[in-house]
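Anyone else keep sequences and structure tokens together like this?

Example one:
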Amino acid sequence: MDFLFFFLFSLIGTSES
């Protein structure tokens, strides 16, 4: 279920930017 983790990380990365 790495896809779910990748999705969460994607949101976090966008928030930091």
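And example two:
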Amino acid sequence: MSLLVYFCPKALNISFLPSYIICVNREQVAELMTKKGLTHGFIMVRLVLLMLSPRLGTLLLCGSLCFSKEFPFVKKFKDISLEKRDRILQNWSRSKYLILTRAAFAMIKSFCFYIFFTRIDENSENPAWGAVGYRLNTEKISSKHRMERPLQRGIIETLHETDFTLVKSLSQKGLKVTEDMNQDAYRIDCDVVIVGSGSGGGVAAAVLASSGQKVIVLEKGNYFTPDEYSCLEGPSFNELYEHGAFLLTHDGKMIIMAGSTVGGGSAINWSASIKTPTSVLTEWFLDHRIPLFGSSDYQSAMDIVCKRIGNQVLRKGCEKLGLKVDNVPRNSSENHYCGSCCYDSTWLVDAVDNGAVILTGCEADKFILEKNNSGRSRNNKCLGVMAASLNKRITKKLLIHSKVTISACGSLLTPPLMIRSGLKNPNIGRNLRLHPVLFAWGYFPESMAEIEGKKHEGGIITSLHNVMSEKSEVRAVIETPIQGPAGLSVMFPWVSERDMKDKMVKYSRTAHLFSLVRDNGSGEVKAKGRITYKLSSLDKENLKAGLRQALRILVAAGAVEVGIKVEEFLDTVTAVGGSLSVGQHWSLHCSAHQMGSCRMGATEAKAEGLFVCDGSVLPNATGVNPMITIQSTAYCLSKNIVKTMNRRKLSVEMQHGSQS
């Protein structure tokens, strides 16, 4: 586990460190850091490692710990003892002012531990898992017992296609395909094209396909069924999450978990399915003046969506403190054991059953816009989407022409797509809300029989507690996450080599609670992968209140490692900044919910035939898991799109009738 003191990627042209790395492959770490890390973070790591090559650089970064009694009196970093190197890392991690070393340390630490806990042998095992009490059922289901893939009838997995087979597959699905020589593309005609298959896109596809429209759904991720899902953290992060679950805000303060597979956010959602709070609906209806959220149509939509929805420590701690704890509706059956599965695709099944076609491994490049000469108020008219397969064997682009185009690729990708397409509204990409999260933990020894099981067993999120203000307003929501050892080690604070070992050995009996706030601060996403975000002072206070309550709950439930004089200790608990912030203490925030970057009323698409049906249209944060809110909003919007298309169809028929 002393990986950090050995780390030295050859890709960075540093050869001064010894090569007796047993725990991690340094080339693997370097490659992952290059592909997934922030560019400026990678530059900081490279700079630190370059500075450690000569003695002068070692002296500047390591101080007196590199002194020697022998000439030339300063040791190179590779010659410093492991004990002192551990102390050097401790100094880097707690440095108040030398942000360079702290940021480099944070990046190296995260990627090293990720590789350490996700690497597997030919039997899909990791020798460290036994030491931390972690075990997964990695046995593959035999082909005899494997269920039919629910979306197979409508899926075209472009990564397995060629130019010839793609055209054939599209034609077999009832789509008209022609070759556009001018654009060097295949032109595909349909009624509706939807970019993204997540909570909003799936609902929109189902509603529009059931109304008789020929629907195409574009998804840059791949299609997996529960039978094909290995539960292994490494492959799962890489295949199911945007940027392999290493998507960070530009300042490195917050790690953002966003779906990147068929089903999008609904495929990785931690089962929690909560209706939009009444107070939020009232705010959106009255303050933001959006009639939809005060209508009976929206209430009906939530009921329809919720009909599709088929933790010990948190509950026990709350009950002992006399706090209210609520059950969380889940999108899984009552007796279902969750473990580390989070998959829901029922809306997409409906869409496919009604003739929708889903193209996977296919990324939208831009919307096809032309000047609108129809006399209507909007300046542009959207004719469809220009897309490309991620498979290099498909040499031509895909020019998808449609009557209606829907962007449903989420709050992080819809704004960049609209901006790339030439839409100019300055509000596009602004007002991004992230539901910032901080974690608290408590260790429960095996001797505590009343707290059964292990960390990774049981339901994912079954209970929640609202932290209320004196005005009876929700300040924070406390819930229980699901975290494997790799995910936990990346988020876990590193104090020293010995401390990290001790903490990870207790993994299976360490319970985590998180404090989630409805953020007032906001961010911006104008280009793919470049996200800026700033917490407001109120957000920090609410996170702090949530963390303190989470620690009280853990202690009340019987945790033995969260402090002795609890109330005195709680007064010191705060929501600190990230590794690039000034101050001795820092932490990594997390976000699993992204909302509001193309909100209703502020960023109405200035193109006829172009609509948005994802979390980006929400006016601001919901304060709870937004899946039901996104699906209900998409349901209402897509129903209105159907009405609009029917009116236009009727108008065209009447014009033809009068002419004849």
